[in-house]
Sequence to fold (177 residues):
Amino acid sequence: MARKRLPSFNPQTFLSKVGSGKTNLTPHKKQVLYSQGDAADAVFYIQGGRVKLTVVSQQGREAVVAILERGSFLGESCLAGQTVRTATATALEDSSIVRIDKGAMIRVLHEEPTFAELFMSYLLAHSIRIQAAGADPPADGPLWERRQAGAGDREGQSGNARRDDRDHTVTGQFLHE
Fold:
């Protein structure tokens, strides 16, 4: 008796389709996606464009902590129990972004091992890049596109311009939404 084969999960398809807790956003240049102090209730994925993360200190000084590009997630700290945004996310140019409600993100992480593995790989690679300030950055493009193409996470990557941690300006501590 042959088993019915389930369709394979495609992370890019999941991120590109609206519905079940996902919304497509098209912010214009300088449009704020969320502000420091807002409720942390969603994860965002950049399909196109760039987003700047800034923090304002208690003394009122603003610092840019990250410039995120296509293939980057932001706001993922809500998955670890953070209830309030610690940074402001602003589009640097006209962009295409997917907003994924916290519940929908948790659901797909539990139900789709492929997505969970790729998301975890993204988070770990991002963390490693932050910790290894002088290391070569990853190749351009989302991690799962490189993995699906058979490329390794860090092997054979060029020394091109930094991607999502290119402009991390750390003043005291690094805050990544």
Remarks:
- The chain has four helices and eight strands.
